[in-house]
Every structure is written in structure tokens, then in C-alpha cells.
Design brief:
single chain, 139 residues, alpha+beta, 2,3-Dihydroxybiphenyl 1,2-Dioxygenase, domain 1, 21% helix, Glyas_Bleomycin-R_OHBP_Dase
Length: 139
């Protein structure tokens, strides 16, 4: 199954400062901005486009339960995850299972843009947080 980088997620402490940096230093464009209070997400997201590529700036909205807050406490701000676009998320999950790669089942969801996504278990990816995603309604 083909895979290509869809976006890179960056954990940030101050989303306003980060947007300013991406717009003014990297000459990026703010594509969308929203707050996700879904369980296990609890983040403000700013989607930036820089040179035709997407970056998601992720700031925690709940310092107790947000996985972004936990990530920043443990590792500091910076690259949180790399998302790979696949043709069919469910087929990709089946392929992972056959390869012995686990997913974090509780992360399976559809975001506000219709992107279906799931995170792979970092214990099986040498510690890198990897997201698989597809866009079933954008064929």
C-alpha cells in the first residue's frame, strides 16, 4: 500500500507565537484553526501550509488530560507526530496487524475535515509517534 507524508504535527506551548513564526519567518499561510475537545485530543490546532506542505501546530487546551500537554511535559515542545496518508485506513490497519504492528485503538476517529485517523503504538515504531490517515470523502 502506498504511503506519503500527509502532515507533521508540532507540539507548541503558545499557538499565537507559533502561528506568527510560521507566517512571518517561514512565509506560511494559516489554512484553518480550531479547538478539539474530543477525549484524548484536547488541543487547539492551527493548520499551516508552508511551501505546499501541511504542518499542524498543536497546543494543549487541558493541561491535565491533553496528550499534547503530557508530551510537552515529557519531551518538551517540538515534533509530536508524522502523519502518513494511506489509500484505505482499514486496509492499512489490517496490513499492520499482519506485520505485528499494534495501533492505539482508542485514537481511531474522524476529525472535523473528514480525515479518518489512527495512531500506531510507539512501542512498535522505535518511539516515533506515527499517524495513519485517509480522506474517504475526498476521492
Amino acid at each position: 500500500m502506498d504511503k506519503k507524508i500527509d502532515h507533521i504535527g508540532i507540539a507548541v506551548r503558545n499557538i499565537e507565537n507559533s502561528i506568527h513564526f510560521y507566517e512571518n519567518v517561514l512565509t506560511g499561510k494559516l489554512i484553518d484553526r480550531y479547538i478539539s475537545e474530543a477525549t484524548g485530543v484536547e488541543s487547539e490546532v492551527a493548520i499551516m501550509e508552508v511551501g505546499g506542505e501541511r504542518i499542524e501546530l498543536l497546543a494543549p487546551t487541558n493541561n491535565t488530560t491533553s496528550p499534547i500537554a503530557r508530551f510537552i511535559r515529557q519531551k518538551g515542545k517540538g515534533v509530536h507526530h508524522i502523519a502518513y496518508r494511506v489509500d484505505d485506513l482499514h486496509a492499512a490497519i489490517d496490513e499492520l496487524k499482519k506485520q505485528g504492528i499494534r495501533t492505539l485503538e482508542d485514537t481511531l476517529r474522524i476529525n472535523k475535515h473528514g480525515r479518518r485517523l489512527i495512531y500506531l503504538n510507539p512501542a512498535d515504531t522505535e518511539g516515533t509517534i506515527i499517524e495513519y490517515c485517509d480522506y474517504p470523502n475526498h476521492l
